[in-house]
Amino acid sequence: MDTQDIADRQYTIEHYLNRSGRDTLPLDRRFVQRRVENNRPAPGPLAELVRRGRETALEQYLLLHAVASNDDEGRFDVRVPATTWARAIGGYFDPTTGVVEAAALHAVSRNWRLLRELRLIDRERAGRHARVWLLADDGSGAPYVHPGEGALGKTLENGPGYVQLPFTYWHGRWHERLSLAAKAVLLISLAAGDGFALPYGKFPDWYGISASTGERGLTELRGHELLHREQHRRPDPESPVGFADVYHYELLPPFGPRGKRSKSAPLLYAGSPQPKTTARPRRSIVATRRSGSKVTKRRSSK
Questions:
Q1: For residue 166, what are the domain limits?
Q2: Structural domains in the chain (count)
Q3: How far does CA 100 lie from the centroid of its chain?
Q4: By the 8 A CB rule, do 272 and 230 touch?
Q5: Which residues contact 7 (CB under 8 A, 6 or more apart)?
Q6: Kind and range of the H or E element at 65?
């Protein structure tokens, strides 16, 4: 058998993304950062995945989120074989026979257990396959509510706040090119406006990841030319010299700019010198229902 005849990782991912009929993954911001008493920022479930170094679990969760469809019970679920998930997260398979190794299948099972422990998903057996469905993105264990459910025509910007991860993340193979640290910082950056400030020392309290991991992720994104950075000076009465130099950031194509200025952006923030041509049209969204391979309701663009 020719290796080209076997559905590899990228082919498998592209197949399910195309079948979903979408081009963006709306992820509740509370997956990245929650708000607690007195509106203080606190880490979301993303922090635990990064702390444990479970990159494939993050990939498995994001892909589940991207392709899950609404069933007759109102759950957003996916029913595919474990071998398919193993290929989708980069598990090894024999290039001549296509047989997925046992370790790759074990990784898929371990990832589901962790995601269930974090109360992000639930699952059950459905014949020979596992049926996996989404729970609330904040890790509360509450039922998942699609951002468009019960609000036909509502835009994402008018919701409680969603990270919009474009499918370019997979189409451009950034899921393979970025490290776990860079993926975490990418999700954090997608939740912020253009010109956001992100001091290294705030990563632990705000996002639950170490300052060194945050710095490494920022550096990597800049190395891939996905992040613009500029330095601005602000008054600081507690500084020995009366001021502090602060870095401000902005995502670059294909993930930005967002076209929305961060509240922390200084008055003189210039932004990326690149043309602002990447802003996507405001999208109205509705819950997606799939019957077999036919989409009966899907997101639409204004």
A1: 3-301
A2: 1
A3: 26
A4: no
A5: 15, 87
A6: helix 55-67
